[in-house]
Amino acid sequence: MGSSGVAGGGMVKRRGCSCTKDDFLPEESFKSFGNYLSALRETPMRLRDRALSRSLDSTELHEVKAQSQHEMKKTLSWWDLMWFGIGAVIGAGIFVLTGLEAKEHAGPAVVLSYVVSGVSAMLSVFCYTEFAVEIPVAGGSFAYLRVELGDFVAFIAAGNILLEYVIGGAAVARSWTSYFATLLNHKPDDFLIKAHGLTEGYNKLDPIAVGVCGIICLFAVLSTKGSSRLNYIASIIHVVVILFIIIAGLTKADFNNYTPFAPFGARGVFKSSAVLFFAYIGFDAVSTMAEETKAPARDIPIGLVGSMVITTVAYCLLAVTLCLMQPYTKIDINAPFSVAFQAVGWDWANYIVAAGALKGMTTVLLVGAVGQARYMTHIARTHMLPPWFAKVDSRTGTPVNATVVMLAATAVIAFFTKLDILAELLSISTLFIFMLVAVALLVRRYYVAGVTTPADRLKLAACLALIIGSSVATATYWGLSENGWVGYVITVPIWLLSTLALWAFVPHARDPKLWGVPLVPWLPSASIAINIFLLGSIDGASFKRFGLWTGALLIYYFLFGLHACYDTAKAAGELKKVEEGNVVGAVANPGLKGGYGTTVNPST
């Protein structure tokens, strides 16, 4: 592997210069053009190996971590994680999307939309927490999926994870500009520059959002603990502002504004739920900080679950307050709370609301910057992305390269793209990933190589196929049928019976060592169903964008990522250490010698 090969103990020998070819493509397949052509010819074999290979907990915790050369500093407690969670989640979603969804899709019933998306988010929090405690690494859901569902699924999820963070940060940065404008007595879009030659939705340029991303980048690369202190000081101020909005806003409540309660019906409530899931995004960033947590088994459950409970209650109270202050038809979609206080004659409160919103969105950007860099770092440790992104600075203990690149991409998207386009595309990526994490948790609990019998493996695969299939059918029927009900009579019982069968007929192969999701398989199965159902409420144009992005990911994977991670696994001896296969792959290839969980090295 040359100077970037894997040496003894899993360390990577790196050159001092960070701008050489070996920092980006050090693998054997890219040493020469002839090597690359040979690798391309082996694509089917290599794809089979990576698709049917599962990593190990120990590999993620030791060998993969060692690729960064330096350890991240363990400085975070449950207090830090809880405030990171609050800071990561409460931001643009509640301060901007509440008004948009209340006015256009849900009316005052937007509070129910927050309840539905909050339940889905809480189920996902449980799944993330168990994984983060058991595999406390910076890779978050990428590492969890790599261990349970294999490299190929993990890469597809990884690409969408990175998209989620870039788009989420861009959406928040755009919202930051809107509230900054209202703070200075301007209309929300006054500071945007209209570019007449660009397509609608991409023609209002936002230079302030770019500047905000640059400032956040400086904080994120300097220190994780310093970012934590800044975050919870800002978040405490933010919580005080939220309490002010709720208490002061309810003194101006008019219950006539709650009639009609659900003008767009149940369909509007669920459509809003799918979009408002954006408001809960951020807690997964906290799971990426597990590697920097002092006592993961204690701190992660308190930090993640505690922050999500506080966030859900705050969202519901804020949604109720907004819709009691103004008729839903008069809510401003850009700065709803500021304009609502102006409408009831409290112009001075506009400044408090705008300042609180700015602080909230600043912490969302900060925590997002910290989380997205750690995702990219762990992905690059496996060489699915160039290993240059995996470098951890020896002085600050932070992944500087990954942080700068991710925030640069965020700034570019924020400069051009309208908020509603960002929000719906973001929700698709997030719901898709959260669904995969729930599937991975069921695989983790019910399958262990050498423990699970072939018969139990097939039963597990059948149950998972029915759970996912019935959830997809329910979501599809919801999307295509305006008033029908017959389809639900078929699909919902299939989901219920398949989950019951998993509980009754497939024995647990592994119990959590430190902290576990309660009521398995019911809660993970419900998470799968709700996430897929909410996906069915998102518009078709967003799915087209999602499809184009996934297609671009596959092109990159087949040309570069597949060969890089295959070479890295081969050099590290992982091809002989990993658990090969997956539950679905075992069913699709019943004649595979050795079956799931045995060593099948296709290169021999």
UniProtKB/TrEMBL annotation:
It is found in: Membrane. It is a multi-pass membrane protein. The chain crosses the membrane at residues 81-100, 106-128, 149-173, 207-223, 230-250, 270-290, 302-328, 348-371, 400-419, 425-448, 460-479, 485-506, 513-534, 546-566. Residues 515-564 form the Cationic amino acid transporter C-terminal domain. Pfam families: AA_permease_2 (PF13520), AA_permease_C (PF13906). InterPro entries: AA/rel_permease1 (IPR002293), CAT_C (IPR029485). Keywords: Amino-acid transport, Membrane, Transmembrane, Transmembrane helix, Transport. It comes from the Eukaryota. One of its GO terms (molecular function) is L-glutamate transmembrane transporter activity. One of its GO terms (cellular component) is plasma membrane. Belongs to the amino acid-polyamine-organocation (APC) superfamily. Cationic amino acid transporter (CAT) (TC 2.A.3.3) family. This is Cationic amino acid transporter C-terminal domain-containing protein.
